[in-house]
């Protein structure tokens, strides 16, 4: 599989206002736009350091990811391709509520971590086992399209799905993946080694 740069989108308007966004399609904030420009430069510099060519940029269909991906595309000269499996987790009834409302849920439905509290269940939401399965499917797609380890594929996604992509790649459980350090806006996580084939079945 290609070397993967996993990038979270820049700060969006829901992030600014402490709102659970999920599939809400808010654009980047002014700060997020600046973050995306900086991230694009970091991607370009890292590609030069690795001396590897980027061959594809895939983005979630949501605006905040598309805008971030476009900033990267303009810097390195590749088109943005929309990949539905990169969309953020569906938050169900939690969509659009204040982040603080997570702590109003029963304690058994909440997983506290270093900088975020994750709700594990809510009506209409995509649970983490489902999200993990989607992440594995995405990695299988990337492996099939880009098997050359000497090329870089850039995935522009979101916090929850981003953590599941990394978990599936590393062979962690979804639960262990959630307890890893926070995946910040425009953070770039490098996934440089192909996982074992049985991890992608």
Write the layout of secondary structure elements.
Elements: E1 3-8, H1 13-17, H2 30-50, E2 54-59, H3 63-76, E3 80-82, E4 110-112, E5 117-119, H4 128-145, E6 152-157, H5 159-170, H6 174-178, E7 188-191
Parallel strand pairs: 1-6, 2-3, 2-6
Antiparallel strand pairs: 1-7, 4-5
Helix pairs in contact: 2-3, 4-5
The H-level CATH homologous superfamily, spelled out, is Phosphoglycerate mutase-like
Strand segment tally: 7
How many separate helices? 6
Would you tell me the overall average pLDDT? 95
**For the record, what CATH class applies?**
Alpha Beta
- Helix coverage percent of residues? 25-40%
CATH topology annotation: Rossmann fold
Global outline: globular
Count of discrete structural domains: 1
- Compressed to H and E, one letter per element, the order equals EHHEHEEEHEHHE
Give the uncertain stretches in residue-range form.
Answer: 195-201
Quaternary structure: single chain
Sheet/helix structural class: alpha/beta
Give the CA-CA distance, first to last residue: 14 Å
**Strand residues, percent:** 15-25%
